[in-house]
Write a structure and sequence with these properties.
The protein is mainly alpha-helical and 235 residues long. It is built from 12 helices and no strands. Helix 3 packs across helix 8 and helix 5 crosses helix 9. 28% of the residues are buried.
Length: 235
């Protein structure tokens, strides 16, 4: 989708900080720039924690709305991408905790015979059918089976190619911890699988254009609804 905002960008590349400054000054439509710039990264981070495509997309929208609401709090002490990634991780972890509590309640209810189980379809989506290939799927499955702490580091360092410093800052740990976790994650993955997939990591957890457009549209709709109800988001 080509919008006036994106067309304007074809003539100049704005830094994240410039976008933030101009959004705070009233050019709210420019927020689309950072959404499209970081949709892939936020999707991968949320998908890494939740291991569910639709929930990851919901978390992305929640993270963008929260970031927009608190944009005035961005102080530039860390990179904007790091600040935004932290918000996405926080939202994903919060949703995971809520999901865990709900699953416990559902299990108790089922044991008491008070409700029927709600089964989610395991059929692959059309996007999975067309975009996936066997190697990518095998690698995704292998990473999915890693403990969450290792999974996050693998995705940040090797899929998103974030630096050790940015990964450590995003996760709130030391650079030494990041290096240790990545080393251990490599040991957990089968060596032959990882070596065969070398150079293909950019294909992992792809966030396609149609979904990107959907997230941008939904986030702006949510922002507009809040502003209409008197919730001033930008200060």
């Amino acid at each position: 989708m080509s919008t006036p905002v994106l067309q304007a960008l074809s003539q100049q590349e704005l830094s994240d900080e410039e976008v933030v400054s101009r959004v705070l000054a009233g050019e709210t439509a420019l927020f689309e720039i950072v959404m499209r710039r970081y949709n892939q990264r936020l999707y991968r981070l949320a998908r890494t924690i939740l291991r569910d495509d639709s929930e990851a997309e919901d978390v992305m929208q929640d993270a963008y709305v929260r970031a927009y609401e608190h944009l005035y709090q961005f102080a530039g002490k860390a990179a904007f991408s790091t600040w935004l990634s932290r918000i996405a991780i926080h939202e994903a972890l919060a949703r995971k905790r809520r999901r865990g509590r709900q699953e416990e309640l559902d299990a108790l209810t089922m044991m008491n015979g008070d409700s029927m189980a709600i089964l989610k379809s395991s059929d692959p989506s059309p996007e999975d059918d067309t975009a996936g290939n066997q190697m990518r799927q095998l690698l995704e499955q292998a990473i999915d089976h890693l403990p969450e702490t290792y999974r996050s580091v693998v995705v940040m360092r090797q899929v998103e190619e974030m630096s050790v410093a940015d990964t450590a800052s995003t996760l709130g740990v030391t650079e030494a911890v990041v290096k240790t976790r990545l080393h251990r994650a490599h040991a957990m993955l089968r060596k032959e699988l990882y070596s065969r997939a070398n150079g293909r990591s950019q294909e992992l957890y792809q966030f396609h254009a149609v979904r990107c457009d959907r997230v941008v549209k939904n986030v702006f709709a949510r922002i507009a609804a809040k502003e209409q109800n008197g919730g001033a988001l930008v200060h």
